């Protein structure tokens, strides 16, 4: 079943479908994480229904974004979302397998790659269903190492790769980034409450970068009383007190 939701009052809208992932905390936090500037060339690796291109376009309207995905049904919905929000001139969708360089755009075409990749290894027990959500949730179609390989190929020398991932797989992520010449440069932990367990990590690396990792302050979602922090309200463009 499809639903249309307004991402913030008077803002962009998103058509969601029960067959695909809806807007979640991970995508919202990732869209707000990397620095953006007018004219920046961005690729979203595994763009799904177009959430990241839409959220990043809201932050910086003058981006040039390519969304790449292998799922035809997800790209079809992404095309509708892009059209719904008047972004057809700045967002292009490409059906391709990230594991196949011959299907990808020209090497070094982008300043920034972003990805909300599958979190779990295949057959890990977290995702067993043979459907589109399962394919996006575990790495049966593309591992984090293969995502990093695609990012390294597509961003220019000195270009950046920003990703959201599970904290328990941080070592896997950093190993894969370094394997493909992307040096981890920024790391930010996401917690539901201050002092609570880490629920997500946000990481950014630079292709050909020198060693040196900056651990940034935590991104805390909720105050002790359960209300949203000001930073989360700003990310979601909610009215602040």
TrEMBL record:
Listed CDD domains: AdoMet_MTases
Gene3D superfamilies: Vaccinia Virus protein VP39 (3.40.50.150)
Domain Methyltransferase small: 29-136
Pfam family, one: MTS
InterPro entries: DNA_methylase_N6_adenine_CS, SAM-dependent_MTases_sf, Small_mtfrase_dom, tRNA_Adenine-N(6)_MTase
Single GO term (MF): N-methyltransferase activity
Domain of life where this protein originates: Bacteria
Keywords: Methyltransferase, Transferase
Biological processes, Gene Ontology terms: methylation
Entries under PANTHER family matching the protein: TRNA1(VAL) (ADENINE(37)-N6)-METHYLTRANSFERASE
Protein's recorded name: tRNA1(Val) A37 N6-methylase TrmN6
Source species of the chain: Papillibacter cinnamivorans DSM 12816
Lineage: Bacteria, Bacillati, Bacillota, Clostridia, Eubacteriales
């Amino acid at each position: 079943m499809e639903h249309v939701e307004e991402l913030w009052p008077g803002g962009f809208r998103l058509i969601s479908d029960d067959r695909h992932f809806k807007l979640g905390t991970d995508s919202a936090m990732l869209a707000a994480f990397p620095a953006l500037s007018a004219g920046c060339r961005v690729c979203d690796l595994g763009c799904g229904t177009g959430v990241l291109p839409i959220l990043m376009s809201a932050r910086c309207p003058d981006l040039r974004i390519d969304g790449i995905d292998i799922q035809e049904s997800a790209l079809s919905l992404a095309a509708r979302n892009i059209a719904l929000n008047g972004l057809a001139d700045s967002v292009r969708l490409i059906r391709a397998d990230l594991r196949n360089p011959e299907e990808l755009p020209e090497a070094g075409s982008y300043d920034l790659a972003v990805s909300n990749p599958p979190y779990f290894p295949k057959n890990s027990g977290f995702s067993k269903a043979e459907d589109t959500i399962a394919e996006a949730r575990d790495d049966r179609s593309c591992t984090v190492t293969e995502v990093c390989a695609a990012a390294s190929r597509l961003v220019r020398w000195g270009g950046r790769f920003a990703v959201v991932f599970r904290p328990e797989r941080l070592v896997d992520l950093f190993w894969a980034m370094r394997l493909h010449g992307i040096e981890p440069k920024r790391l930010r932990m996401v917690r539901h409450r201050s002092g609570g367990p880490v629920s997500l990590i946000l990481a950014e690396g630079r292709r050909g970068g020198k060693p040196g990792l900056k651990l940034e302050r935590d991104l805390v979602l909720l105050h002790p009383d359960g209300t949203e922090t000001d930073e989360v309200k700003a990310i979601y463009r909610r009215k602040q007190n």
